[in-house]
User: What shape does this take?
Amino acid sequence: EATPGETRSIKGETFEFCHILSGVIEIIPDAGERVTYRAGDSFVMKPGFTGVWRTIETVRKIYVTVG
Assistant: This one.
């Protein structure tokens, strides 16, 4: 669970699959456009990703990292 706020995200060499259980987030890549995810959405963060993870509403997620 994460409360509203903003975190700099730098992925190493792993993939991260995320499924949002509740809340709202924005992913803002350094090289790309902002994407919003809400409860029920799933996405993958790829190795080498750099950008900002912004929690808009308190979020709960399940995730798996694969290297």
Observations:
- The CA atoms of residues 11 and 39 lie 23 Å apart.
- The longest strand covers residues 50-66.
- DSSP finds no helices and five strands in the chain.
